[in-house]
Amino acid sequence: MKTATAFDDNGNPQGNSASQDIGGQFIRNRQYKAAADLRGSQKRSAVVEVQFNRANHFLRTTGDPATTVGLTSIDKQPSIVLLGVQPPRVAELFSSVPTSGTTVRFIRENTLTNAAAATAENGQYPEATWDLVEMDALVKKIAVIGRVTDEFFQDYDATRDYINNRLAYMIAIKEDNALLNANGSANQITGILQTAGILTQAQGSMTVPDAVLAAMTQIRTTSFFEPTGIIMNPNDWFNLRSMKDKNGQYLGLGPLGNTYGQATTYTPQILWNLPVVLTTSIAQGTILVGAFKQAGQIFRRLGLTIETTNSDASDFQYGRIAVRAETRLTLAVIRPVAFCQITGLS
User: Fold this and answer.
1) From the centroid of its chain, how far is CA 276?
2) Containing structural domain, residue 231
3) Are residues 339 and 216 in the same domain?
4) Is residue 222 domain-resident?
5) Can you tell me the distance from the alpha carbon of 260 to that of 268, in angstroms, rounded to the nearest whole number?
6) Which one of 73, 137, 155, 275 has the fewest beta carbons within 10 angstroms of its own beta carbon?
C-alpha cells in the first residue's frame, strides 16, 4: 500500500522536512524547479531557506562516474563521486535558538561574594556583593558561492549532491571551526578557545585521562556546572585509545570490541562517561572540556539559505548558474569558567 506525502507551499514534505537532506529540500522546492525548467534567454533564480538538522546531513551520495555498455555507449550517472570530508560536529554540542537582532546582549555575573552567616536577633545583616556586566555577541555571516552550468543545474540529482556535499558542507565546517577558534576580528564571531576567562589545565606529568578528569573537576569546582562533552583532535584520540598496560592489553576495549577475556558490545567515543567529539578543527595537543549546553548558546539570525541566479557577472553569456549559501549566527559564552582547555598533550 502506498502512502501519500503532504507538501507545503514550497514543495517540501510537511512534518518531517528537517529530516530530509539539504540538497533534497532544495531540489524539491518549487522555486528551484521553476528555475531549472526555464530555457533560452529567460532569467532564472531561486531563493530557498532549508531546514538545518546536522544529524541527517552531509552524507555523501555517490555513484559510478560512467558505465560502458559494449564498445561505444556511455551511460553517465547523474550523481557525483566526491572526495571524503570531515563531518561538522562541534555545533551539535550547543543548544541553538533563533534571534531577530544583529547583536545578542546578555548579563554575565563576574563575581559573587556570599556573606550569609548566622545573625543575632536585632543584629546587622551581613551584606552580599556581586558584579554584573553586560556582554555583547555580534551576529556574523559565513558565506560561499559556486558556479555550475545550466545543464548541471537542470540535473536534479547532480544539484542535490552539489548542495549536500559542497556548499552546505563548506558553511558548516567553517562554522565548526569558528565556534572553536574565531577571534572576533575580520567579521568573525568569538570562539570558545578565544574567549577570555576560560580555564586551563596543563597535562604535565599526568596521563591524558587524568588531565581530562582534572579539567572536569576544575569546571565542577569553579563554575559548579556539570561537563557535558569533550572535543579532541583525532590524532590525540588515537594516542589515548591505543594506551596499553604493562602486559600489552588495551586499557579500553580492544580492536574487536571486547576487554581481555570478555566479550562485550563496542561503545562509541566515551571518556569519563562524556561523549568525545573528534575534529581536526581543534589543534593536536589541545583538548576542550565544557558544559556546552548550559554555558554556551548559538543564536541564529539566518538559517542555512541557498540562492541561485544566472544574472551574475558573465554567467548569462556562458550559460552558468551562480549558487551561493550563507548563514548568520553568533556564539554567546555565558559562563567562560564552565570550559577548560587542556594543553601540552604528549
Assistant:
1) 14
2) 197-255+266-295+334-343
3) yes
4) yes
5) 18
6) 73
CB atoms within 10 A of CB 282: 24
User: What's the whole-number mean pLDDT along residues 115-144?
Assistant: 92
Strands 199-202 and 339-343 turn out to be: parallel
Residue 270 belongs to a domain: yes
User: Are 323 and 302 in a shared domain?
Assistant: yes
Q: Is the pLDDT of residue 234 over 50?
A: yes
At residue 164, the 3 state secondary structure works out as helix
Residue 209 forms part of a structural domain:
yes
225 shares its domain with 248: yes
Those residues with Cβ within 8 angstroms of residue 126's Cβ, 6 or more apart along the chain or in another chain: 115, 116, 117, 119
pLDDT digits (tens, 9 = 90+) for 287-298: 999 999 999 999
Between 57 and 180, the more confident residue is 180
Determine if the pTM surpasses 0.85: no
Cα–Cα distances in angstroms (integers) from residue 2 to residues 5, 25, 28, in the given order: 10, 21, 20
